[in-house]
Write a structure and sequence with these properties.
The chain is of the alpha/beta class and 233 residues long. The chain has one domain (2-231): Rossmann fold (3-Layer(aba) Sandwich), CATH 3.40.50.1820. The protein is built from nine helices and eight strands. The protein has helices at residues 20-25, 50-62, 76-86, 137-146, 152-156, 180-189, 195-199, 214-217, 219-231, and strands at 2-6, 29-32, 68-73, 91-97, 118-119, 150-151, 171-175, 203-207. Strands 2-1-3-4-7-8 form a six-stranded parallel β-sheet, with helices on both faces. α2 (50-62) crosses α3. The longest helix has 13 residues, at 50-62. The model has no long low-confidence stretch (mean pLDDT 97). GO terms for molecular function: catalytic activity.
């Protein structure tokens, strides 16, 4: 199976380095991505928006043969949802890592402080305590050293959706900050921020208790959860 790994904000393909080896060892073809504007701290980010990133991942899918599993962490979840909307017939499963699908008209996070075309990694006190579980001082320092400013447009642009077949794509949500049971309760209650999940016909919620960056705090466990989701295909 081709597995495309889409990083969250401030991260490039190398953020998956500890997750990728078990997927390759299991016989899968793994494609960790660096998205436009995230090539380096000095990369130009003007004019790069959410659709730019969706189009970039869609192009990767188009370059592969057969069904594809998409894995999106954090803000990457919105991106893979846009790809399932663009290519619903090509996606075998969408796996959301502490993330989920973004509804039409919503933005990933338009409250993050921006500096021109950039959204730099903010101070740790901007995040909730649940975000930072298991992210010790060493991991925080390593994260900040590797962090690349996110293009402002990706954070602030409104999602556009067109094809309701996206709602039939098999979906796994790997729940880290909150439990799978909590997530299911929010969906059942019709909470707006999980409205798209409530419309889907084939979803599962899997627990991986840690903070918002399991690829750093629990990479082996994250790889195992992704493999389990892929094996369901």
């Amino acid at each position: 199976m081709d597995i495309v790994l889409v990083p969250g904000f401030w991260l490039d393909a190398s953020s998956w380095d500890e997750v990728t080896p078990p997927l390759v060892a299991a016989g899968h073809r793994v494609h960790p991505l660096t998205l436009p504007g995230l090539e380096s701290a000095d990369a130009p980010r003007a004019g790069i928006g959410l659709q730019t990133h969706i189009d970039a991942v869609t192009a990767v899918v188009d370059g592969l043969e057969g069904p594809v599993v998409l894995v999106g962490h954090s803000g990457g979840g919105a991106i893979i949802y846009g790809v399932t909307d663009a290519r619903p017939d090509r996606i075998a499963r969408a796996v959301y890592v502490d993330s989920g699908p973004l509804g039409a008209g919503q933005s990933i996070n338009d409250e993050l402080p921006a500096e021109g075309d950039d959204v730099p990694l903010p101070a740790w006190d901007v995040f909730e305590d649940e975000d930072l579980v298991d992210l010790d001082e060493g991991l925080r320092a390593a994260f900040r050293a590797r962090a690349i400013p996110q293009p402002r447009g990706v954070a602030q642009d409104a999602m556009q959706l067109h094809d309701e077949r996206r709602l039939t794509v098999p979906t796994t949500v790997i729940a880290c900050e909150f439990t799978a049971a909590q997530l299911a309760e929010w969906v059942a209650a019709g909470a707006p921020f999980v409205a798209e999940l409530g419309l889907m016909s084939d979803t599962e919620y899997v627990d991986l208790p840690t903070g918002h960056w399991p690829q750093f705090t629990k990479p082996a466990e994250l790889a195992a959860a992704i493999l389990a989701a892929v094996d369901r295909q």
